Amino acid sequence: METLRPFLAYLRKFVNITDEEFTKCLIPIIKIRKVGKKEFLTKEGEVENYFNFLVKGLVRKYYKKNSQEINTQISMEGHIILSQESFHSRTPSEYYIETIEPSVFVSIQFDDLEKLYTLSKKMEHLGRLVITHTMMIKDKWQMQMVKMTPRERFLNFVMKNPDLMQRVPQKYLASYLNIKPETFSRFKHLLRSHSRGSNHNGSKNNNSTHSASAAR
């Protein structure tokens, strides 16, 4: 049950679902999936069968354009990830979904989810709210890609996801943020230089304060 707690907490952001409802309606159809590093959940051409909530780990979603891999989503703990169009339309996926780190998922199969919706209006309503939320996040991201400069996208991402800078390979992040690899490297270097400069100035200020205190 501990593995399922983050998923229950996520669902409660949308609907006040009780422990009893969760146990009765959702636990029977939930699958816990443990996937190793650099393994695929979904490949291009396959029909997406699972709705996935990421409990632990890191995952990317991408499509191939000639020899390039274009990353469209990077998800960490607490995120939903699936090939949405394929899942809902039952058509072959245009995306690959691959783990970056060993990962644990709470997953529900399409057929099980559809049966749940027919049995419970509350669960159907919950599903609609979750889908709407994920669509809004996608739209917001696409708008940022259009309105923000590469530098603004980089700084905004770093500010909101500082830990991912260490966890995600740079080439994936550059692709995800639609920034040329060399430009991404330059931004990263400038950020490190600025950080070192701030720390150095902070140390000098601390030393000055300490000296002044000693003089008094």
Structural notes for this entry:
- This protein has 216 residues and is of the alpha+beta class.
- It has 2 domains: 2-147, Jelly Rolls, CATH 2.60.120.10; 149-201.
- The chain has 9 helices and 8 strands.
- It has helices at 5-11, 19-26, 84-89, 110-119, 121-147, 150-160, 164-167, 170-176, 181-215; strands at 30-35, 40-42, 50-56, 59-65, 68-75, 80-81, 96-99, 103-109.
- It has a 4-stranded antiparallel sheet.
- A hairpin with a 2-residue loop joins β4 and β5 (68-75).
- α4 packs across α5 (121-147).
- The protein is globular, with a radius of gyration of 22 Å.
Q: Mind sketching the topology for me?
A:
Layout: H1 5-11, H2 19-26, E1 30-35, E2 40-42, E3 50-56, E4 59-65, E5 68-75, E6 80-81, H3 84-89, E7 96-99, E8 103-109, H4 110-119, H5 121-147, H6 150-160, H7 164-167, H8 170-176, H9 181-215
Antiparallel strand pairs: 1-8, 2-7, 3-6, 3-8, 4-5, 4-7
Helix pairs in contact: 4-5
Number of helices: 9
SSE topology string: HHEEEEEEHEEHHHHHH
Structural class: alpha+beta
Report the major sheet. Answer: 4 strands, antiparallel
CATH homologous superfamily descriptor of the largest domain: Jelly Rolls
Stretches with pLDDT under 50, minimum 5 residues: 206-216
Number of structural units classed as domains: 2
